[in-house]
Amino acid sequence: MNETATTPGETIEIGGLPVVTLERAQLADPERPVFTRAQILPGRGMMTLQIQVDLPGHGAFDLLTAPPLAEARELLRPEAEPFPGNHSYMIGGALLLPYANRIRGRLSDDGRTIETEVAGRTVLLPANAGGRRPGAEQYAMHGLLLDAPVTEQERETTAEADVLRGTLQAGDFGGRWPSRTEIRWENVLRSDSFTFGVIAVNVGDEILPMGIGWHPYFNLPSGRREQARLHIPARRRTPVNDYDEVLPTGEVVPLAGTPYDFSMPGGREVGDLYLDDCFVDLARSGKGEATAEIVDPAGGLGLRILAASPRIQAFQVYAPPEKSFLVVEPQFNWADPFGSQWPAGTDTGMALLKPGEAALYEARLELFRPE
Fold first, then answer.
1. Both ends of the chain: CA-CA distance in Å?
2. How far is CA 348 from its chain centroid?
3. Structural contact between residues 113 and 104, judged by C-beta atoms closer than 8 angstroms
4. Neighbours of 344 (CB within 10 A)
5. What sign results for the dihedral spanned by CA atoms 143, 144, 149, 151?
6. Cβ pair 216, 328 in contact under 8 A
7. Is the pTM higher than 0.90?
8. N or C: which end of the chain has fewer CB within 10 A?
9. Residue 66 pLDDT more than 50?
10. For 135, which DSSP code?
11. What tens digit of pLDDT does each residue of 3-24 get?
12. 172 contacts 137 by C-beta, under 8 angstroms
């Protein structure tokens, strides 16, 4: 893992708190792919900055697209961001909460906020994203936690795992969201897996709308995107108006027989297909897990992304053809979950938590040797 421009032993802080590096001992079996390190940022909503793996025949590899620590520290400075936290979802793996993806609304005159209804309540959200063409719609994206530091953290290292836990009393997110939220994290690094777990608890006295997602940029060791295979266990997707604004049309269409069908065992090559799509109607195992896979045959990488929580109803996949990464986001909610484009009664994945109720999110990564 490249950590240039830092002094050996130097403690690096990002978001006002030290970076935590979870570690596992290298296994003696050279034929087995393993997880060895994970860098977590408690000062940036417990985002996963980097995960290092060791691949048989290929050696150490940085699984996530992210700069070295010193560069990440500069990129994630508040002065470097157009909106607080925005750079968190452009590298590594950010936690998206209390909503993943986009939420539309009426743009303020200064272009900094949108006014919209969330579960019957009017809220003001940051207009921190949108289309890039002139006149394109601007909207809120990827939650309100991107730059939040945890208030409590605890590390536990055993022979089996290195674990980092954190807690944050998020309240009503500065008056921008209904009710009050307590967030608990658990990051678990084992030699055979990395687990990203979150519990959101409604500690207020109103209904709490809750959507949770994780936004990991998975690198391809070979750099050859066209031969990489993707498996998404979905039967349908939600088309968008275009790939600039990326706003759902309100349709939900079958995947079978289309270029977007990656549901077959072993997946299919991504080729030069542009993807920024929400895949829904997920197939699950007997354990209730929905499992996506990325396979880079030329790079020796086989990666499973297991959506262990039954509340995870979608995989958002972002993969521009000119890049050598695939973003596969397990998330509760579809894009613009409260939007008027959805037919009445459509379940768009937002959990509506009663006071005292909790929602569990868990995504787990596993490695395998590609055939």
1. 26
2. 18
3. no
4. 5
5. negative
6. yes
7. yes
8. C
9. yes
10. T
11. 434 455 568 999 999 999 999 9
12. no
